[in-house]
Amino acid sequence: MTYNLFISHSWSYSDQYDRLVALLGKKPYFSYHNYSVPKNDPIHGVGTDWQLKQAIERQMKPASCVIILAGVYATYSKWINIEIELAQRMGKRIIAVEPWCSERTSSIVKQAADEIVGWNTDSIVRAIRGF
Fold it and tell me: How many Cβ atoms from other residues are within 10 Å of residue 123's Cβ?
């Protein structure tokens, strides 16, 4: 089975996104399609805030769940908050991933999450699979 994922993250902290994608890519017997919007994606220069929100919604629509990196920076990110709102409106499961060695995390992301997991490949994949 291939899982459709939207991985929400701050473009300013894209190194954590890259590490998460690498973790998932190395997991044996786990296949996924990544619908997220990385910093180098053409959607980045889409135009107005409204156009960007519409583009993110189109990207998120086919995802079975939304993964949000729960670093404290997420609390202050306008776009991560918009992605939470979109995910909730579309009825998407939200999985919060607490970054590795993180002392502080985003209470906004964790309150919105259906499940909170640590920075551990097995825990993240188990949450995606819904176990």
Answer: 16
**CATH code reported for the domain at 2-6+26-129:** 3.40.50
Q: What is the pLDDT of residues 59-99, one digit of tens each?
A: 999 999 999 988 755 555 677 888 999 999 999 999 999 87
Cα 117 from chain centre: 13
Share of the chain above pLDDT 70, in %: 81
Q: Are 36 and 55 in contact (CB under 8 A)?
A: no
Domain boundaries, the chain: 2-6+26-129
- The span from the CA of 84 to the CA of 66, in Å, is 8
d(CA 19, CA 12): 14
Please report the pLDDT score of residue 26 as a whole number.
93
